[in-house]
Amino acid sequence: MKLLKDKILKDGKVINESILKVDSFLNHQIDGQLMKEIALEFKRRFENENITKVLTIEASGIAIAVMTSMAMDVPMLFAKKKVPSTMDTSIYTTKVFSFTKNIEYDICVAKEFLSPNDKVLVVDDFLANGHAALGLANLVKQSGAELVGIGIVVEKGFQNGRQLIEEQNIKLESLAIIKDLKNNKINLK
Ligand code: G4P
């Protein structure tokens, strides 16, 4: 997606060889117009899939998912990172390991919002090692709904998220793929 790639090259900031900061348009301040185009691009890439729900994880996925759900005219649902401490049978929950933060955390969604009749598109801002996306896929699986695919705004192609997702035969669409961040430069595919 050319508009997104141009924006990444213009405003993305290389923090080190594995982290790209996009706080000026995606992760903190949000460029609404770009977000609208991102949503339309996801709609195009998952056309004819009869998606009934867009699922993401808080926090940065929410804006992307809201826009995408509006473009598709379906509800949006976000997994929460705060799971009730008591045994709660009304939620689906799974564990996600974050390489960036080196911690394992629980994510959950209420059972009432995912049903076996749903056809779910998962979207997120970044794909690194794929654990967040696969955690969301796991919640969909527990509900008996169908996972139509995963849509990512920025994929870090030098990490193994794509491999893990494709090993599970899940359709993956990334709007921009970073080849590497060597020598303080953003190298896109
Ligand atoms: P993974 O899910 O693909 O395995 O990645 P990882 O655990 O390493 O990522 C943890 C968090 O960091 C995620 O956000 C992810 O979106 C974000 N992230 C990963 N790589 C980058 C990067 O290069 N740049 C930026 N800006 N973010 C990155 P999160 O912890 O869920 O935070 P948030 O959604 O609340 O912002």
Give a written overview of the molecule:
The relative contact order is 0.18. The protein has a single domain (about 1-189), classed as Rossmann fold (3-Layer(aba) Sandwich), CATH 3.40.50.2020. It is globular, with a radius of gyration of 16 Å. Helix 3 (about 30-45) packs across helix 4. Strand 1 (about 15) and strand 2 (about 20) form a beta hairpin. About 30% of the residues lie in helices and about 30% in strands. The mean pLDDT is about 95. With about 190 residues, it is of the alpha/beta class. The chain contains six helices and ten strands. The N and C termini lie close together (about 10 Å). The strands form three sheets. It has a six-stranded mixed beta sheet, with helices on both faces. A two-stranded antiparallel ribbon has the order 1-2. The site of guanosine-5',3'-tetraphosphate has 22 residues, from strand 2, strand 7 and helix 5. Guanosine-5',3'-tetraphosphate binds near residues 22, 57, 99, 128 and 156.
